[in-house]
Every structure is written in structure tokens, then in C-alpha cells.
Design goal:
It is built from one helix and six strands, in the order ββαββββ. 14% of the residues are buried. Helix content is 8%, strand content 35%. The chain is mainly beta and 72 residues long. The chain has a four-stranded antiparallel sheet with strand order 2-1-5-6, with no helix packed on it. It has one domain.
Amino acid sequence: MDIRVQCRHCKAWIRAPLGMSSVETFDTLVLHGNSIECPKCRKMTACDKANMRVRWHSDDEQGGFLGVETEP
């Protein structure tokens, strides 16, 4: 599972400091009030589902998730 957070300042994609083993784990995850430092612009940015991208690939599951606040 590849989990990335989009910096709300510079729009860079950052590897999220989260680890999950299944889609069900992500679906039940509640993220609120977390932030991380962007390695590109060095500003603190939120780390929640709204600015998150997840790609999962396994024999049983394929697909992903794209948060409502992400930009291309």
C-alpha cells in the first residue's frame, strides 16, 4: 500500500508516516489534527484523508483513494 499526503502549501506529494496492511484498516482510520513537515517547502501541513492519496495492489484488492482536497 502506497500512502501519500499532498502538501497544502507547495502541492508536493509526501510519503505518509503511516503503515497499513489492508483497505479495511484504511477505511476505518480516523485522522484528525495530525501534521507533518513537507521536505520540499519545510512548512507544516495537515495529514488527513482530505489531502491523501492511497494506492493498494494485492492479489485480492486493486484500486485506491483520492482525497477531496488533492490537486493534480
